[in-house]
C-alpha cells in the first residue's frame, strides 16, 4: 500500500528526521544569506543550485580558483559551550583565506551542515556565522545543504564544511616562482589559534581539568569564549594589499604552523629567515603551553602562534605594505626576509611569549 505524503513524513519523523524543522531552519537562515548577495548572482527558482555570472569584461584571462575545508574539532568546543554564532566565521576563513594565497578574489561559497537533529534556531545561528564570514570576505553565500543524520550523530552534534570559488587574472597568479632574494616577509597577526590544533587544545583542557566556563584573568575572559574566538578573515585585506604593492606570494598559516606553511610558498633555491623577536604571541598560546606542558617546538608545529597570514613582498614595498594593512586595522609587522637557501622557512631568536 503506497503511503501518502503525510504518512511518509510521519514515518520519516519516527526514524528521527524532522522535515518541518528543516523547512523552518531554511526560513530562519534566509535573512542571513541575503546579507551576502553580490550583483553577479543569478536567480535559480528551483533552489537546487547556486548560479553566479562571471564578469568576463573585467578579466583578459580569468582563472577560477577553488578551495574546500571544514572547521575540525573546534566544533566540539562550540557544542560544549552551546555557542554556535561564530563557528561559521571559522569555516569561511578556512576556505577564503586559502583562495587568496594564489591572488584570487573570493566570489562565492556553498556550505554543508550535517547534524544529528535539526534545531532550527541552532542551524540559523550557524548559518548566521557563515553569512558574517562571507560578508567579511566580500563573497556571496549562494547555496548550501543541511542534512539530518539521526543515529550517525547525537541530537546535539553537528559538523560543517564549505567550498569556495574565486577568480584571478591568468598573468597575476601568485606563488613561489615570483619570490626573489631580498624580498620582505610581512606577518599579519592572528586572532588566536584560529581553527587549527583543537585536538591538542581539547586534550589539554581535558587532561588539566580546565573549566571552559571559568574566567581566566591572564586571558582576560572566559576560557571557552577565548578558545572560540573566530578566525580572522584576511581575504579582502589580501586583495587590497595585492592591489597596492608588489606582492609575490602569500602563505595561510594553518595546521603545521608558521614554518611549514610558509615553506610551501617558497621556491627550492630560497629560504625565509624569520625572527621571533619581532612579535609576542597572544597570552592564549602561553596558557595552553603551560597547562599542557607543551614544548615550544610542538607549539610551533601545531599552532599559528600569532601569525595567521604571511605576505612576501618586494623589499622596497615593505613600508607601504605595513601602511596599507594598518589602515585596514590588521596588526602587521616585518617578520623577516628572503635569502638564498633550499626552500625552507626558519625561525630564530626569542620572543619570550612561550
From TrEMBL:
Q: Where in the cell is it found?
A: Cytoplasm
* Molecular function via GO: ATP binding; phosphoribosylamine-glycine ligase activity; phosphoribosylformylglycinamidine cyclo-ligase activity
Question: Domain PurM-like N-terminal spans what residues?
Answer: 61-168
Alphabetical list of Gene3D superfamilies matching this protein: PurM-like C-terminal domain, PurM-like, N-terminal domain
The enzyme class is ligase
Coiled coil where?
none
Q: What is its EC number?
A: 6.3.3.1
- Nucleotide-binding is among the record's keywords: yes
Would the keyword Transcription turn up in this protein's UniProt record? no
Q: Where this protein primarily resides, as one coarse class?
A: cytoplasm
Q: Which reaction does it catalyse?
A: 2-formamido-N(1)-(5-O-phospho-beta-D-ribosyl)acetamidine + ATP = 5-amino-1-(5-phospho-beta-D-ribosyl)imidazole + ADP + phosphate + H(+)
Per UniProt, residues of the PurM-like C-terminal domain are 180-342
Q: Which pathway does this chain act in?
A: Purine metabolism; IMP biosynthesis via de novo pathway; 5-amino-1-(5-phospho-D-ribosyl)imidazole from N(2)-formyl-N(1)-(5-phospho-D-ribosyl)glycinamide: step 2/2
Q: What is this protein called?
A: Phosphoribosylformylglycinamidine cyclo-ligase
Can you name the source organism?
A: Nocardiopsis algeriensis
Give the encoding gene's name. Answer: purM
Amino acid at each position: 500500500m503506497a503511503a501518502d505524503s503525510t504518512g511518509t513524513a510521519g514515518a520519516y519523523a519516527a526514524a528521527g528526521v524532522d522535515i518541518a524543522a528543516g523547512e523552518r531552519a531554511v526560513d530562519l537562515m534566509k535573512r542571513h544569506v541575503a546579507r551576502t548577495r553580490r550583483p553577479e548572482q543569478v536567480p535559480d527558482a528551483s533552489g537546487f543550485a547556486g548560479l553566479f555570472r562571471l564578469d568576463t569584461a573585467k578579466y583578459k584571462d580569468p582563472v577560477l580558483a577553488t578551495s574546500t575545508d571544514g572547521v575540525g574539532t573546534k566544533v566540539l568546543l562550540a557544542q560544549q559551550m552551546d555557542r554556535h554564532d561564530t563557528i561559521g566565521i571559522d569555516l569561511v576563513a578556512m576556505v577564503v583565506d586559502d583562495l587568496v594565497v594564489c591572488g584570487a578574489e573570493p566570489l562565492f561559497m556553498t556550505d554543508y551542515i550535517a547534524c544529528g537533529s535539526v534545531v532550527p534556531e541552532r542551524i540559523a545561528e550557524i548559518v548566521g556565522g557563515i553569512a558574517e564570514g562571507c560578508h567579511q570576505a566580500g563573497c556571496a553565500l549562494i547555496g548550501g545543504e543541511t542534512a539530518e543524520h539521526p543515529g550517525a550523530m547525537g541530537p546535539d552534534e553537528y559538523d560543517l564544511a564549505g567550498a569556495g570559488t574565486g577568480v584571478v587574472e591568468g598573468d597575476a597568479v601568485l606563488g613561489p616562482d615570483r619570490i626573489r632574494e631580498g624580498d620582505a616577509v610581512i606577518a599579519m597577526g592572528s586572532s588566536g589559534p584560529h581553527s587549527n590544533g583543537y585536538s591538542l587544545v581539547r586534550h589539554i583542557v581535558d587532561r588539566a581539568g580546565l573549566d571552559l566556563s571559568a574566567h581566566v584573568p591572564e586571558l582576560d575572559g572566559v576560557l571557552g569564549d577565548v578558545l572560540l574566538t573566530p578566525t580572522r578573515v584576511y581575504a579582502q585585506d589580501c586583495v587590497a594589499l595585492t592591489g597596492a604593492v608588489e606582492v609575490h606570494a602569500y602563505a595561510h598559516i594553518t595546521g603545521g604552523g608558521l614554518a611549514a606553511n610558509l615553506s610551501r610558498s617558497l621556491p627550492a633555491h630560497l629560504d625565509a629567515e624569520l625572527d621571533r623577536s619581532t612579535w609576542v604571541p597572544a597570552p592564549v598560546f602561553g596558557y595552553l603551553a603551560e597547562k599542557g606542558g607543551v614544548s615550544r617546538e610542538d607549539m610551533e608545529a601545531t599552532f599559528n602562534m600569532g601569525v595567521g597570514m604571511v605576505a612576501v613582498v618586494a623589499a622596497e614595498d615593505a613600508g607601504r605594505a605595513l601602511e596599507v594593512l594598518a589602515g585596514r586595522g590588521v596588526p602587521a609587522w616585518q617578520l623577516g626576509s628572503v635569502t638564498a637557501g633550499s626552500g625552507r622557512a626558519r625561525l630564530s631568536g626569542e620572543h619570550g611569549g612561550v
